[in-house]
Amino acid sequence: MEAIFLCLIFLVLRVSGLSEGDALIALKSSLVDPKDVLQSWDTSSGNPCIWFHVTCNGNGNVIRVDLGNASLSGHLDSGVGQLTKLEYLGLYSNNISGKIPEELGNLENLMSLDLYFNNLSGTIPGTLGNLQKLRFLRLNNNILMGTIPISLTTVSSLQILDLSNNKLTGDIPVNGSFSLFTPIRFIECDFHFHDDGVG
């Protein structure tokens, strides 16, 4: 009976690892990697925890993906939203384009999201308001458009926010967590401060 129980535990961990590995492979497939920084991301190894630029916790879950300043282009695959134990996602200072996937809102353990200095376009997903552990959100120096999602003001853990140098428009909320931030975090955007009375 004990042997069966141990086998079941191993099977669950194995399936979890494969799911995270598949999510990372999908991300790799969506990116152009001229310097082969993702060369070690290979499903034949069966364990994403040994891949470069990936960090796992003691349970074998991926908690950190750091691909900043890696000369990457392409787009962000929505499968990254399957990395539900992820605490840090860094893809800053690359040439990544396309939209920020709404599925990033599934990363309920995420504490830091760094996508600054890319060519990301479209709107800021309102689903990022689901990230109630998020402390650092840096989306500056992209070409993001539209308004700031009011859902972001509910992220009480937010300490660092930078949305500057985008093409955002509309009102800047000053309630909730946004009351902590100065206008410098929103420079080079076509909007103004407005208290919507929420909070």
UniProtKB/TrEMBL annotation:
- What name appears for this protein in its UniProt entry? Leucine-rich repeat-containing N-terminal plant-type domain-containing protein
Domain (Leucine-rich repeat-containing N-terminal plant-type): residue spans on this chain: 19-57
Q: Where is the signal peptide?
A: 1-17
Pfam families xrefs: LRR_14, LRRNT_2
Keywords from the UniProt entry: Leucine-rich repeat, Repeat, Signal
Location of the Disease resistance R13L4/SHOC-2-like LRR domain:
66-165
